[in-house]
């Protein structure tokens, strides 16, 4: 057999192994912490990550998608647990129905709707989830029981200030110091959350601190649990199942989009959700926590060299080994340590990328973001997303209506189109010219990105935006994504922006710096001449 072939296969296996181990290291503290936060217990979180990852590995896409309980899904399950008075059997029924709904969704075209969700809605939701996680962990950090919603948590935080458990606060602050203080170069090799988990638990055991602990994690294989369900229960809890199914599906699809961007390989969204739905139904029947494709763990696996679904098998195998070998140690983990780790996870979920450019964002985007954020934190997650999408659509309709006027304008002259075609053919498509026609907004941005995935043979792309409409936040980030994708294909991009207001907007968002000021033009002809000279120079 060809030695080159064997070497390639060996490298792929090594990359998948290290990727799976890396993802497992990140998944362990998260699964334990989210399990406790939902009220199901640490074991349910860990077994959910193991079962779901296994099933998705075999039934999902070839891309390694590491699955398990995540921040948004944990918050929804915790909210349902609170609404149903901690009736675990009823919550299991909700998770099982959510899994079945995902299977049904995977057979329909409805899952494509996620592509049209505006960025401010996603950002507002993720920021809200991040803040919820942080608020809910303040009481456990002080050594008190966790509350099930943000308003209660804030109220009890002030009441509990007079009775702080200083042992818990000490170990919690040490956890925060480690997870936030470890340099990035060390964190890449050994995640700070794992280091905090090990060090702080050992310190607690050594000093004999008086703190609440996980107590016990079941190492027994999960048993099949059929929830007691009547027609009345199914009808009563159905809206909870819809909420959970939508959140699990949306998060998995968003993780799929991230994978597509990193691997340059399109995934099958229907297959992703089918596998997730089957996995979540099985998780529910074993009393484990339902979950979704976890972006952080999946990216960690890809960055470590994972390329196939083998990595998604390695992750639960590693978690199983840790569960059976170190269950005694896991039982000693203080809840204050998990609170500190969850605060770091909540902080990481917050959309720092948007916060950096928020002062340049259109007011309409900020209104949407603020509405979704406030509803997520203080009311209901699914209402927040629905209200955000509705408001974004109404504001867009108003913006289009305000700009509506009768004009006579020749968008592309015939001779210009002929020139563009001749340039592309003369240079054997090493130069390509593309126009973004119409307004570049959230609805068109995600659709446009896919057009730039593969441009074989192209050396220079001239991208022209003729419209006078400013770009919204989704379009800004989509343009950044297009630039990154073209760079990864070693394609130089030239921007043609005739409108001064749009040009100033791209300058504010530092898009022009990414492209290079000498690669930005206000007219197409100079850009074509620049490209022709550059291609000729490449051939010399």
The helix-and-strand class reads: mainly alpha
Largest sheet: 4 strands, parallel
Distance between the termini: 41 Å
**Helix amount, in percent?**
55-70%
Tell me the β content: under 5%
Rg from C-alpha positions? Answer: 26 Å
Poorly predicted regions? 404-416, 441-447
Number of domains: 2
Explain what the structure shows:
By secondary structure, this protein is mainly α. It has two domains: 9-164 and 213-332, no CATH class; 414-539, Transcription Regulator spoIIAA (2-Layer Sandwich), CATH 3.30.750.24. It has 25 helices and six strands. The protein has a four-stranded parallel β-sheet with strand order 3-4-5-6, sandwiched between helices. A two-stranded antiparallel sheet has the order 1-2. α21 links the parallel β3 (431-436) and β4 (460-465). α5 runs antiparallel to α16 (335-349), α18 packs antiparallel against α19 and α21 runs parallel beside α22. The longest helix is centred in the first third of the chain and has 36 residues, at 3-38. It is globular.
Short account of what is shown:
The chain is built from 25 helices and 6 strands.
What is this structure's SSE topology?
Layout: H1 3-38, H2 42-59, E1 67-68, H3 71-83, H4 88-106, H5 119-136, H6 138-141, H7 150-160, H8 166-181, H9 184-189, H10 192-207, H11 231-263, H12 269-285, E2 292-293, H13 295-303, H14 310-325, H15 327-331, H16 335-349, H17 352-356, H18 363-378, H19 381-403, H20 414-426, E3 431-436, H21 442-449, E4 460-465, H22 473-488, E5 492-496, H23 500-508, H24 511-515, E6 520-521, H25 524-539
Parallel strand pairs: 3-4, 4-5, 5-6
Antiparallel strand pairs: 1-2
Helix pairs in contact: 1-2, 1-3, 1-13, 1-14, 1-16, 2-12, 2-14, 3-11, 4-11, 4-12, 5-16, 5-18, 5-19, 8-10, 8-16, 10-16, 11-12, 11-13, 18-19, 21-22
């Amino acid at each position: 057999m060809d030695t080159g072939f064997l070497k390639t296969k060996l490298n792929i296996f090594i990359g998948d192994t290290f990727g799976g181990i890396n993802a497992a290291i990140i998944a362990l503290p998260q699964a334990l912490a989210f399990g406790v936060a939902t009220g199901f217990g640490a074991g349910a979180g860990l077994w959910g990550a193991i079962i779901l990852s296994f099933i998705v590995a075999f039934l999902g896409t070839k891309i390694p998608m590491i699955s398990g309980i995540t921040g948004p899904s944990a918050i929804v399950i915790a909210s349902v647990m609170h609404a149903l008075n901690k009736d675990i059997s009823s919550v299991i029924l909700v998770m099982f129905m959510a899994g079945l709904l995902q299977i049904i969704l995977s057979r329909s075209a409805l899952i494509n709707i996620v592509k049209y969700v505006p960025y401010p809605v996603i950002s507002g939701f993720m920021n809200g989830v991040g803040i919820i996680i942080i608020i809910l962990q303040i009481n456990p950090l002080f050594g008190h029981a966790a509350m099930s919603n943000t308003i209660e948590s804030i109220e009890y935080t002030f009441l509990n200030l007079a009775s702080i458990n200083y042992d818990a606060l000490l170990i919690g602050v040490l956890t925060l110091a480690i997870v936030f203080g470890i340099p990035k170069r060390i964190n890449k090799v050994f995640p700070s959350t794992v280091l905090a988990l090990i060090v702080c638990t050992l310190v607690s055991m050594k000093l004999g601190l008086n703190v609440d602990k996980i107590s016990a994690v079941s190492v027994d294989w999960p048993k099949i649990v059929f929830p007691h369900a009547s027609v009345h229960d199914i009808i009563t809890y159905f809206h909870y199942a819809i909420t959970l199914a939508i959140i699990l599906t949306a998060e998995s699809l968003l993780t799929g989009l991230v994978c597509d961007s990193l691997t340059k390989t399109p995934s099958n969204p229907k297959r992703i959700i089918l596998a997730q739905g089957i996995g979540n139904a099985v998780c529910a029947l074993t009393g484990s926590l339902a979950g979704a494709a976890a972006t952080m763990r999946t990216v960690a696996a890809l960055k470590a060299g994972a390329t196939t679904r083998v990595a998604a098998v390695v992750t639960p195998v590693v978690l199983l080994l840790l569960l059976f070998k170190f269950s005694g140690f896991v039982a000693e983990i203080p809840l204050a340590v998990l609170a500190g780790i969850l605060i770091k996870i909540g902080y990481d979920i917050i959309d720092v990328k948007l916060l950096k450019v928020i002062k340049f964002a259109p007011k309409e985007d900020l209104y949407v973001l603020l509405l979704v954020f406030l509803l997520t934190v203080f009311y209901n997650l699914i209402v927040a997303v629905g209200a955000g999408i509705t408001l974004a659509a109404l504001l867009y309709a108003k913006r289009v209506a305000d700009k509506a006027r009768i004009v006579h304008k020749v968008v592309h002259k015939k001779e210009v189109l002929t020139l563009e075609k001749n340039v592309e053919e003369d240079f054997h498509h090493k130069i390509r010219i593309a126009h973004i026609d119409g307004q570049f907004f959230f609805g068109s941005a995600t659709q446009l990105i896919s057009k730039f995935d593969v441009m074989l043979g192209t050396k220079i792309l001239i991208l022209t935006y003729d419209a006078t409409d400013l770009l919204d936040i989704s379009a800004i980030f989509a343009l950044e994504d297009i630039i990154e994708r073209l760079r990864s294909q070693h394609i130089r991009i030239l921007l043609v922006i005739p409108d001064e207001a749009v040009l100033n907007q791209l300058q504010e968002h530092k898009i022009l710096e990414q492209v290079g000021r000498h690669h930005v033009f206000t007219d197409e002809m100079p850009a074509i001449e620049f490209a022709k000279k550059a291609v000729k120079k490449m051939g010399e």
